[in-house]
Recover the amino acids of this structure.
């Protein structure tokens, strides 16, 4: 039995394609890989709201609490030093990677696109899923 090797950047991974949030990166990977056509609307796993895929990462800004000098992520409870740090952290909730032929392939869990580096998937999330009106 060969087990697939997966990587995640945060404890919990959001899968807006299926509307789930889970610690099981392999499960998210499976769901994301089944997505052949990028959806135009996805479901927020935190509040159940339907969101346009282009604005999904932007929507996640509301899922935090400001506590003293820090920003607490409502999804995983992690404390971040600033709103900018929180936004970077939010993007990390939206990617999983799979080891394929010795190379990590990164997936965007909002639209299912794949990337050859962690940096490129995080830039993609910023440019494609954090679009203001
Ligand atoms: Zn939400
Ligand atoms: Zn978090
Ligand atoms: Zn995407």
């Amino acid at each position: 039995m060969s087990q697939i090797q997966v990587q995640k950047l945060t404890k919990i991974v959001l899968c807006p394609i299926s509307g789930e949030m889970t610690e099981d990166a392999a499960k998210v990977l499976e769901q994301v890989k089944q997505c052949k056509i990028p959806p135009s609307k996805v479901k927020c796993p935190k509040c159940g709201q339907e969101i346009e895929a282009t604005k999904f990462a932007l929507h996640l800004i509301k899922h935090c609490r400001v506590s003293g000098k820090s920003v607490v992520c409502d999804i995983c409870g992690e404390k971040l030093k600033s709103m900018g740090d929180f936004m970077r952290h939010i993007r990390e909730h939206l990617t999983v990677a799979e080891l394929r032929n010795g190379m990590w392939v990164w997936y965007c869990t909002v639209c299912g696109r794949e990337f050859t580096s962690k940096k490129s998937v995080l830039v993609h999330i910023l440019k494609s899923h954090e679009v203001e009106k």
Observations:
- Residues 6-57+93-129 form one domain.
